[in-house]
Design brief:
With 277 residues, the chain is of the alpha+beta class. It is 46% helix and 16% strand. Strands 3, 4, 5 and 10 form a 4-stranded antiparallel beta sheet that branches. It has a 4-stranded mixed beta sheet with strand order 7-8-6-9. A hairpin with a 6-residue loop joins strand 1 (23-24) and strand 2 (31-32).
Length: 277
């Protein structure tokens, strides 16, 4: 910054403001945070990770973007001790696959029983004691083949899961925003008044509308500082919805943290200044 001053001859004062990036009060129509500082001309430039939104663009001007970002989900890595043995056994297959497999085995067992009873009525007592009907043998053979295929796929899936690098074999409680919206055990929230806050508040996508409704039920789901959100994630049972650069920084700084799922949107970071003319 000193080099810029020497090159341009500009004189400036830098102030670190511990306030929200800026949001519009829906009741009064007034702006708060850094955007309000620009509107009321208490600042000439805001330097930081401000995201351009339609509402902000109406009252301030933005520079060219300097970073592409998106919203991600920050979560604490589950403790390996919380992954009970039965969860590890069942995890390679989804609930639907287990249900279909059980139904297939049950249907085959019933078929074998029915074929045995039907064919036994057409044979004399000697034949029933010494020979199994061909249809029953065929059904049992198909059952054995199906069991072998299931075991092969199960073993491959279990090995792939246990060797996964991202979670080190942990059982993830959620894996996407959709998973997050369908459960109530893990609370989630975002930075109050920021672009992520506005994204969920104004979204028309059903999943994000549902998530906004769940977050808005409890004001403690929102944080006034990004670091507070990270600290709540470390405490457990909380997921923090935050912009990807900050998320990647937090994950790289603390091995107990992880990102789950992909980015929920795509936008750009810019600096902003008051509208001129």
């Amino acid at each position: 910054m000193d080099l810029i001053r020497l090159e341009t001859g500009l004189h400036y004062e830098i102030e670190h403001q511990n306030m929200s990036h800026g949001y519009k009060n829906s009741t009064t129509g007034k702006w708060a945070g850094l955007i309000a500082e620009l509107i009321e001309e208490r600042a000439d430039l805001v330097v930081g990770g401000l995201t351009i939104t339609a509402e902000r663009e109406k009252v301030v001007d933005f520079t060219a973007p300097f970073m592409n970002i998106g919203i991600g989900i920050l979560l604490r890595k589950p403790d390996r001790r919380s992954s009970t043995a039965w969860k590890l056994v069942l995890l390679p297959f989804s609930a639907e696959v287990w249900l279909y497999t059980a139904a297939a085995f049950l249907a085959t067992a019933v078929t074998i029983a029915l074929l045995t009873r039907i064919t036994s009525r057409t044979q004399d007592k000697l034949d029933r004691q010494t020979r199994t009907p061909r249809s029953v043998r065929l059904a049992k053979g198909l059952l054995c083949f199906f069991s072998l295929v299931v075991v092969i796929f199960y073993t491959a899936s279990l090995g792939s899961f246990l060797s996964a690098d991202q979670t080190d074999g942990f059982v993830l409680p959620i894996d996407s925003a959709e998973d997050l919206s369908k459960q109530t055990q893990i609370k989630y929230g975002c930075y109050q008044g920021g672009a992520t806050y506005s994204f969920f508040k104004n979204s028309v996508i059903p999943i994000y509308k549902q998530m906004w409704h769940a977050m808005n039920q409890d004001s403690t789901n929102f944080v006034v500082r990004g670091q507070h959100g990270v600290e709540r994630v470390l405490e457990g049972q909380y997921a923090y919805l935050m912009e990807s650069p900050s998320l990647e920084y937090a994950v790289n700084r603390d091995c107990r943290l992880m990102q789950v799922g992909g980015l929920l949107d795509a936008k750009k970071f810019r600096h902003c200044h008051p509208t001129r003319g």
